[in-house]
Design goal:
13% strand, single chain, globular, Aspartate Aminotransferase, domain 1, Aspartate Aminotransferase, domain 2, 7-stranded mixed beta sheet, 384 residues, alpha/beta
C-alpha cells in the first residue's frame, strides 16, 4: 500500500466529505433557482458556509465567498482590491519574498499594470519586521503575507506584521494566504488582523475544485474590493458563476468534521513532525527548520542528490513526498521559497518536503526513514 506524505499538495478526501458528496450529487438543482430543487441546493451551500464561518470565528454570511480554488480566491483578493476605485489613494503593495505562486504571480501582473510591489525578506523562515518598518515609510494600500510557507512550513508572524501595517495606515487592506494554516492552527481573521483570508478545500480533506475568500464586511460596505469574475451575480455579487454545490458541500462537511477536534489534530501533526525530525536527524540529511513552524511540514536537504532523483526512487517504493510546491513542480526552476529561506541553489535543488495529515502513522515515517537511508547509500554510490 502506498505511503502518502505529500499532504501540503493535496489531502485524501475524508469520510465526512465523501458522505456529503453522495448526498449533494443527488441534489441537481441550480442554487439560484426558486423552485424546490434549487432551494435544496441553496440549503446545502448555506450549511457549508455556516460550517466554515464557524471555524473562522466569523458570522456574517456575505463575508465568505466560494471560489473554484485557493488561487482564484487570492486573485479576487489582490486584483479585486487593486482595481477598486476607492483604493486610489496609493499604488504600493507589500508581499513576502516567499509567497505561493498565486500571490507572487498576481503581484507580477499588477506590477505590469503600473503598481509598485515591494517584497519583505523571510530569511530563516521569519518575516523581517525591520524591513517591513522601512517599507512602510511610504504609503501602501495592500499587504499580502502568507501564514504558513507551503515548502518550509515556516510560520510567519502575520499578526504583528498586519498590526504594524494598520498602525501606520489604518485604511490599508491586509490579506493572508491561510491555505496551509487553516485547520492546522487555531486562528480567526480578527485575531491576526486580516481583512481578507484565502482558504482551499483540498488542503483540508475536501475535493479539489473549491476554495473560499473571507472578506471583512467593512471592506464590502466601503466597496474596497470589486469582483473580477462578472456575470449573474452569484456569491453576493462577488463571484459570478453557478456554484459548485458538490464541492462546496464537501468542503463544509470536511471542516465540520475537523473543527471540533482541531486541538487533537494539531497535536497529532506536531507529534508526527517531531518523530520524523528525530528519525531523519539520524541520517545524512540536513533538516531545514524555521524559527517557528506549522505542525504538518518538514523540509530536508539531501547530500548532493537531486530531489527529483530521490523522488523517483521513493515513488518506486510506493512512498510519496514532494520537492516543493505542487503548483510549480514542472517549472524546472529552483524554488524561490527555499532561496528566500537561505538555501543556496544546489541545496534547494536537493531538498524534499514531507507533509503530514492526521491519517499518517509513525510506522509510515519509519518506512520513509529506512527508504531514505537506503536511497542515499545507493544513489551516492552510483554517482561516485
Amino acid at each position: 500500500m502506498a505511503i502518502y506524505l505529500d499532504n501540503s499538495a493535496t489531502t485524501p478526501i475524508s469520510d465526512a466529505a465523501k458522505a456529503k458528496i453522495s448526498e449533494a450529487i443527488e441534489c441537481y438543482g441550480n442554487p439560484s433557482s426558486l423552485h424546490d430543487a434549487g432551494l435544496k441546493a441553496e440549503k446545502l451551500i448555506t450549511e457549508a458556509r455556516k460550517n466554515i464561518l464557524l471555524a473562522l470565528g466569523a458570522k456574517n454570511a456575505g463575508e465568505l465567498i466560494f471560489t473554484s480554488c485557493g488561487t482564484e480566491a487570492t486573485s479576487l483578493a489582490l486584483l479585486g482590491t487593486a482595481f477598486a476605485k476607492e483604493r486610489r489613494e496609493a499604488n504600493r503593495i507589500l508581499i513576502t519574498d516567499s509567497e505561493h505562486p498565486s500571490v507572487a504571480n498576481a503581484a507580477k501582473r499588477l506590477e505590469a499594470s503600473g503598481f509598485e510591489v515591494v517584497t519583505i525578506p523571510t530569511r530563516g523562515g521569519a518575516l523581517d519586521m525591520y524591513a517591513l518598518e522601512e517599507a512602510l515609510e511610504k504609503k501602501i494600500f495592500l499587504a499580502s503575507f502568507m501564514m504558513v510557507n507551503n515548502e518550509t512550513g515556516a510560520l510567519y508572524n502575520v499578526k504583528d506584521a498586519f498590526a504594524a501595517v494598520k498602525e501606520k495606515y489604518p485604511s490599508a487592506i491586509t490579506h493572508c494566504d491561510a491555505v496551509q494554516g487553516f485547520l492546522k492552527l487555531r486562528f480567526t481573521p480578527a485575531q491576526i488582523g486580516a481583512d481578507l483570508v484565502t482558504l482551499s478545500g483540498h488542503k483540508v480533506h475536501a475535493p479539489k475544485g473549491v476554495g473560499a475568500l473571507y472578506i471583512n464586511k467593512e471592506l464590502l460596505k466601503a466597496k474596497k474590493i470589486v469582483p473580477f469574475l462578472v456575470g449573474g451575480g452569484q456569491e453576493f455579487g462577488m463571484r459570478s458563476g453557478t456554484e459548485n454545490v458538490i464541492g462546496i458541500s464537501a468542503f463544509g462537511a470536511a471542516v465540520a468534521d475537523i473543527y471540533p477536534r482541531l486541538g487533537e489534530v494539531t497535536d497529532k501533526l506536531y507529534s508526527l513532525r517531531a518523530y520524523a525530525a528525530e528519525r531523519l536527524s539520524e541520517l545524512d540529511i540536513k533538516l531545514n527548520v524555521p524559527e517557528k513552524f506549522a505542525p504538518q511540514i518538514l523540509n530536508i536537504t539531501l547530500p548532493s542528490i537531486k530531489s527529483e532523483t530521490m523522488l523517483h526512487y521513493l515513488s518506486n517504493l510506493g512512498i510519496n513526498v514532494s520537492s516543493g510546491s505542487a503548483c510549480s513542480a514542472h517549472s524546472n526552476t529552483t524554488s524561490p521559497s527555499l532561496i528566500a529561506f537561505g538555501l543556496d541553489r544546489h541545496s534547494a535543488d536537493c531538498s524534499l518536503r514531507i507533509s503530514f495529515s492526521e491519517y499518517n502513522t509513525t510506522e509510515e515515517i519509519d518506512a520513509l526513514a529506512d527508504a531514505l537511508n537506503a536511497g542515499i547509500s545507493s544513489l551516492v554510490r552510483i554517482k561516485r
